[in-house]
Amino acid sequence: MRASLRSDAGFSLIDIVATVAITATVMAIATPPLVNMVDQYRLGNSLRTVERQMQFAKLKAVSSQSAMRLRFNCPVVGQIRVVELIGTPAVPDPVQDPDSYTTRCNETTYPYKPTGSDSSRLTKPNNDGPVALLDSSVTVTSSTTLEFWPDGSVHAANGGANPWPNIGTAGVTITLTRKGVSKNIVVNGLGKIQMDR
Fold first, then answer.
1. Which of 35, 36, 39, 161 is the most buried (most CB within 10 A)?
2. Phi, psi at residue 132, to the nearest 5°?
3. Which CATH number, 3.10.450.50, 3.55.40.10, 3.40.50.720, 3.40.50.170, labels domain 13-195?
4. How far apart are CA 127 and CA 145, in angstroms?
């Protein structure tokens, strides 16, 4: 008997077309959940950024014995920054702390100083945080500036009167939205911060 020299190795056109069709079907089924997962990740990441900034403001106010403000859209949409109040909550310094987003959010005029680099009361502000960036596709539906006091309480702007009133037990809800999905962070007057999971 003679051995055949002919080889049947390889793929036929039908095999390749069937493999491509099955792969395309699996990808079409898997893509929407993957896109949704990425959307949820980006919204959750921005939510955690806002929560960390609130925690930073609260802890810095207590540790430095100086009121701290959390500013949203500082100075543009999607940026937030914790800034030290110059003066006191009852009598803010109108020259150095003119409650203006264009001045206090400017890192050139009011640079971020890492902890411990400058603690002189003569060179205030010493406790401004860096500008934090949210995902560009996430919007913050509430932009109320919050003020954290050294006693741990939280206050909100009320149209110019000083000191700002405590936000009370109902608190303030900050809502972040991305592609129609929203998540909330609630902070109350005692400084308790809760965020959606």
1. 39
2. -100, 140
3. 3.55.40.10
4. 17
